[in-house]
Amino acid sequence: DGGGGGWKLASEAAGVRTEWRPTDEGAAFWIRLGGELRGASLTHALSVAYEADLWRNWIPLCSAAEVVAAPEPLERITYCQFDLPMLRRGLLLHWSLSDQLLERQSLLLLGASVPEGADARLPAAAAGVALAEAAAIKVLVQPLSRSSARIDWVMQVDLKASSALPQAIVSMVTNKIGGSVLALLLREAQKVAKEAAREAATAAGDERGPPSKAALEASVYLRRLEAKPEVYAGMEQLTETYFECIGHDSAED
C-alpha cells in the first residue's frame, strides 16, 4: 500500500519509489515518483532531461523523441512516442521550468499535453500514432547540496484506450516507463558528472587510455552544455547563488 489518498505502491527500486492510483474517469490514472539525485549536479541532470532528442537512448520503450518548439530557453514543446505491447502512443508535451530557489528552496518543472488545435506541429514520426494525454505534470526539485537533490514527480496519464486498461499495461507504464525514467535519469546524470571529471583529469594530464563507450555517450551531453550557455550557464549560476545564500558547502550530503 502506498499510504493515504488511495495511492498504491507499484515498486521501490534503485532509490526510486513509484506509486499509482486510478481516477474516476475512463482509463486515466495518476503516477507519483520520488527519489534522490546523488553524485551529479542539477546542471548535469538538466542536460539529460532537456536534450529530448536523446531520450530514446535511455528511456525504456521510447521509439521516437524530438523538440518541436523552444519558445524560451527553459520552455520546450517535445514529442515522444512509446511502443507498448499492442498499444503505441505519442505524447506532445509543453514544459516550463520555474526558479523558486530563493523563495521556496526548489525548482518547479510544470508540464501538460498540448491542447488540440494549438499552434504546435506534430513531427513526421507521429503520423498515424494516437496521442495519449498527460495532465498536471509537476516535478519538484529540492537541492540538498551541489551534487545532490530530492526529486518528487506527480502526473496524470490517459492512454486514450477504448476500454479499461489491463493491470499489466498499468504496471508497465508505472514501473517500466514511470519509475524507470526517474531512476535512469539519475543514473545518466551520474554518467555525465563522471565524464566531466574524466575530461578534467585528461586535460590536467592525469587520465590515460581511450574513453569507454559510456564515457563517449556522456560526452554528448557535455558538448551540449558548452553549446547552450543560455540554458546551462544560467542553471549553474542559479544554483551557485542559491548555495552561497544558504551557506551550504560543496560536499555531498
What does this entry look like structurally?
This protein is α+β, with helices and mostly antiparallel strands and about 250 residues long. Helix content is about 35%, strand content about 35%. It has a nine-stranded antiparallel sheet with strand order 1-2-3-9-8-7-6-5-4. Helix 1 (about 40-50) packs antiparallel against helix 5. The model has no long low-confidence stretch (mean pLDDT about 85).
Summarize the structure.
The protein is an alpha+beta fold.
- Sheet with the most strands? 9 strands, antiparallel
Cα separation of the termini: 30 Å
Number of strands: 9
Structural class: alpha+beta
Please work out how many helical segments DSSP would assign. Answer: 5
- Poorly predicted ranges: none
Instruction: Name the strands of the widest sheet in spatial order.
Output: 1-2-3-9-8-7-6-5-4
Strand content: 35-45%
Helix content: 25-40%
**What is the 3D form?**
globular
Write the layout of secondary structure elements.
Layout: E1 8-13, E2 16-22, E3 29-38, H1 42-50, E4 62-72, E5 75-84, E6 87-100, H2 101-104, E7 106-113, E8 133-145, E9 148-158, H3 167-203, H4 213-227, H5 229-246
Antiparallel strand pairs: 1-2, 2-3, 3-9, 4-5, 5-6, 6-7, 7-8, 8-9
Helix pairs in contact: 1-3, 1-5, 3-4
